Amino acid sequence: MAPRANWKGFLRLSLVTCPVALYPATSESEKVSFNQLNRKTGHRIKYAKVDADTGEEVANEDIVKGYKIDTDTFIEVTKEELENVALESTRTIEIDEFVDRSEIDPRYLIRPYYLVPDGKVGHDAFAVVRETIREMNKVAIGRVVLTNREHIIALESMDKGLMGTLLRYPYEVRAADEYFDDIQDVKVTKDMLDLAKHIVNQKAGRFQPDKFEDQYETALLDLINQKRAGKPITAKARPRGENVVDLMDALRKSIGGEKAAATEAPKKPAKKARKATAGQKEMLMPIAGKKSAKEAVARKPAAKPQRKSA
């Protein structure tokens, strides 16, 4: 089942309008998360909203937003006043213009969403907008209000739907000059560049997200499994970075190391990696049926912890 829509409204291109829903295209909920505990009691930590001066807890209905003017001076803004700041984009994504995808600076990208028709009506109008964007190989730029803020959104065709990516405003993007000005102008010799290019060619491939594993997530699950099984936790040796004295020598050794790794390929055929069911993690034992990772953690530890296969 798809998650709940973050936003519902209308997509409009000139006089063509259709009801649409916006869904998050990514999720952080599958990652290992921790609660804060009181070391002495083992109880969870509870946070309370308190008055900074009196120290007394404040009820939610007594909390209002305030814009800071000075150290102790704020302008209060009520929920009703914020709702009165009328923006057409609160209910409609109006397509303002079409641009080439290459013109959008990656620094402006925030996060992706899926845009789909909402309900049984409007599929024809949605298809017209989608196919126009696809055929002309363009990105549609519009505006949408999420969490009381108006955002720029870039719409691209994706399969049967549209992918909308929120974009930053120019004032949110820092200029690179203040960071890059102190970088020394170094002349790279042709020999060094040729060696570096050779290394790149040896490592050339295609971007396939499925072959990347979140090693930190795997290590966290392994740590939790070991602690549940009562095994001692030992610190692992960390790799130490070394200063490069001779850059040419380091590049040559890198090429030699790549060649050696290629000749030392395993003789046994590699086992095909298991494809994990979406939304599942492996803890002390394989997760059966539709059990979640948290339910698996709650089980009694087995004799041998299992880890995600490579």
Question: How does this model look, in words?
Answer:
The chain is of the alpha+beta class and 310 residues long. The protein is 23% helix and 22% strand. It has helices spanning 79-83, 123-135, 177-180, 190-202, 215-228, 247-263, 293-298, and strands at 7-13, 16-24, 65-70, 73-77, 92-99, 109-117, 139-146, 149-158, 161-167. A hairpin with a 2-residue loop joins strand 7 and strand 8. Helix 4 (190-202) runs parallel beside helix 6. The radius of gyration is 27 Å and the shape is extended. It starts with 6 loop residues before the first strand and ends in a 12-residue tail after the last helix. Residues 269-280 and 282-310 have low confidence and may be disordered.
Note the main attributes of this structure.
single chain; two-stranded antiparallel sheet; seven-stranded mixed β-barrel; 310 residues; alpha+beta; disordered C terminus; extended; 23% helix; 22% strand
Summarize the structure.
The protein is an alpha+beta fold and 310 residues long.
Helical segment tally? 7
Give the amount of beta strand, in percent.
15-25%
End-to-end Cα distance: 29 Å
Main sheet strand line-up: 1-2-6-9-8-7-5
What low-confidence regions span 5 or more consecutive residues with pLDDT below 50? 269-280, 282-310
Report on the biggest sheet: 7 strands, mixed, barrel
User: What's the overall average pLDDT, rounded?
Assistant: 82
> What class would the helix/strand composition place it in?
alpha+beta
Shape: extended
Q: For this entry, what is the oligomeric state of its chains?
A: single chain
Write the H/E string, N to C: EEEEHEEHEEEHHHHH
**Residues in helices, as a percent range:** 10-25%
* Number of E-state strands: 9
The radius of gyration is: 27 Å
